[in-house]
Amino acid sequence: MSEETKSLNFIEHIIEEDLANGLQKDKLRFRFPPEPNGYLHIGHTKAIGISFGLGEKYNAPVNLRFDDTNPAKEEQEYVDAIKRDIAWLGYDWANELYSSDYFQKLYDWAILMIKDGKAYVDSQSSEAMAEQKGTPTQVGTNSPFRDRTVEENLELFQGMKDGKFKQGEHVLRAKIDMEDPNMLMRDPIMYRILFAHHHRTADKWCIYPMYDWTHGESDYIEQISHSLCSLEFKPHRKLYDWFKEHVYDYAKEELPMLPKQREFARLNLSYTIMSKRKLLRLVEEGVVSGWDDPRMPTISGLRRRGYTPNSIRVFIEKVGVAKRENVIDVSLLEFCVREDLNKTANRVMVVLDPVKVVITNYPEGKEEWLETENNPEDASAGNRKIPFSREIYIEKEDFKEEASSKFFRLRLGGEVRLKSAYIIQANDVVKDAEGNVTEIHCTYSTDTEKKVKGTLHWVSVKHAIKAEIREYDRLFNNEAPDSHADKDFMEFVNPNSLKIKTGYLEPSLEDVKIGEQFQFQRLGYFNVDDDSTSEKLVFNKTVGLRDSWAKQKPKPQQNQNQNKPQQNRPAISLIQQFGKKYTNLPEDKREKAKAEIISLSDKVSYDELEPLFGTAAKKAGTRAVVLIALKQLLKKGLKPNEATNDFIERAKTDKNEVLAAEANSLD
């Protein structure tokens, strides 16, 4: 098997098999079919990446089709936002299409279905129909209107279209099988009466096709070769095929291609809500400022917060394409944007919680413009000038009157280096009536070659620019806020998800533009918010320099069990503990640790291991110990799957030699 074949995901395998079996490559066609009833969120980026990625791989067209079948919830605002988000991610669609373009054709096909005895008008209440539907273990019962004549059905359906009946008075149902084990096949509704203004067809229609009827037939009309959707649509595939096979008889000369539906695992992210309905509730109840609030997982919110298209595309690539649902740690997404911005964002100095430093031996009134680099990761970024004067700001937390030897910042009697400037020594402090330090008096040395352990960022008081700094944190303080049957997800909203501060900026930031991104040295990555003006600068915190949440995660029963032996901890937890230092251990100690990990693997299940396959790239040690445990499970008979194969293949090419060697030992 070639390396190229190995790297294919299961959808690409399906396509390659179809091509090998005679499907012409120029017949490949994909689509991304959002419903315009909300803004796209991070979960949609996986579907976007899969469909448009296949388009790029096979040089095949990808349609952007809006499945706009529910005018009560759809708006042009959502259409515009969806187009803007996909374009921002860097994808081009071949055609902009709408299911509403096909309303007449769908209606005409529905007429033919009635004439063929495959559809009928039902006049029961929705409650009665639901009761007759049965359960997964109990078959349904036929509607008393199921055997209406073709003529009566045609007359009633025409009356529905002409607006002669009230909303809910009649529906058109497919006539399939009320005893089918798949409840979706039990005479599903095809049309309902809905007196609502449509954002494109206005008031032309008062009957609207249901999603299952519209979606598959729209794929067929557009001659989509592979209809890709998330796993929740797998039970719908049988109905998808039933509908398309019937309409094929009506249009096979004009439309010879029958689409193939295949499903992939959707993207689930920790600490994140992936329901547009629930996200809308956050907007409507004022928990956030709108769909593009930087705390929202919408693409618009991520863009405003400072995420880059490349970071999201890399994230989707790392997540991969799988058939099995799992939850990806949001820290992987944060890692991807952190890695991307590290390469591209210029470094600047900003102080968010200032205390004044007076350099007593620096001449009053004197100022210097010192040179500093813009981005050590990008040689082409060049240098800039920053002003230095007698009075500067540093962060309050960077000074202690007394501190241990492990405090490598400024303390009385201690020395510290100012970034791109001089070395200063703290000699005295000035305090207010409450005993708070208001000034630190220092002396400076021009001997910048002297070795000191700490380096601080700073801003000249005289030249500092004020700006509003919005520090964002995760919107929910629970890993799975909508998975609690007994609690409303709103109970887990993080009350500290937004903190507003005043920042003191170096003057090079005076003329920044909306959307520009910077690393505030030692603080994190920030971008210029949409609210920013020349009179009032506003910055959003995109992400910190490191994962601060990893330290905050509570350790279950820590207090009760702190004196108990380590063996009482779950085996998976002990294995993860080894991962923290595994790749940095000397070879002899690493071999000893490996033996213990192998022993612990007897007590670990695959379900415990799989969520760790998405561990951040920088945590090579954790991935290495997970791989060791996985190898033991494979030896004991675990069957490889898409997730295991992808995890192993990525490890084989990792830049960490220990991890790569462990993976390649499987060959």
Total DSSP helices = 21
Largest sheet: 7 strands, mixed
* Separation, N- and C-terminal Cα atoms: 12 Å
On the 0 to 100 scale, the average pLDDT is 92
Q: Identify the strand order in the major beta sheet.
A: 12-27-28-29-25-26-13
Structure classification:
alpha/beta
Low-pLDDT ranges: 1-6, 555-567
- The helicity comes to 25-40%
Total strands: 29
- The percentage of residues in β strands lies in 15-25%
Taken from the alpha-carbon principal axes, the silhouette is elongated
Whole-angstrom Rg: 31 Å
Domain tRNA synthetases class I (E and Q) anti-codon binding: 455-529
Domain Glutamyl/glutaminyl-tRNA synthetase class Ib anti-codon binding: 345-444
Organism: Winogradskyella litorisediminis
Pfam families: tRNA-synt_1c, tRNA-synt_1c_C, tRNA-synt_1c_C2
Q: What's the structural blueprint in terms of helices and strands?
A:
Elements: H1 3-6, H2 10-20, E1 30-32, H3 42-58, E2 62-66, H4 76-89, E3 95-98, H5 103-115, E4 119-122, H6 126-132, H7 150-161, E5 171-174, E6 189-193, E7 207-209, H8 211-221, E8 226-230, H9 237-251, E9 260-264, E10 268-269, H10 276-284, H11 299-305, H12 309-319, E11 327-328, H13 330-344, E12 346-348, E13 350-351, E14 354-359, E15 367-373, E16 383-389, E17 391-395, E18 399-400, E19 410-411, E20 415-418, E21 423-431, E22 437-445, E23 455-456, E24 459-460, E25 465-472, E26 498-505, E27 517-520, E28 524-528, E29 538-543, H14 549-552, H15 558-561, H16 571-579, H17 587-600, H18 606-609, H19 620-635, H20 642-652, H21 657-664
Parallel strand pairs: 1-2, 2-3, 8-9, 10-11, 12-27, 14-22, 18-19, 20-23, 25-29
Antiparallel strand pairs: 4-5, 5-6, 6-7, 13-26, 14-17, 15-16, 17-24, 20-21, 21-22, 25-26, 27-28, 28-29
Helix pairs in contact: 3-12, 8-9, 12-13, 16-19, 17-19, 19-20, 19-21, 20-21
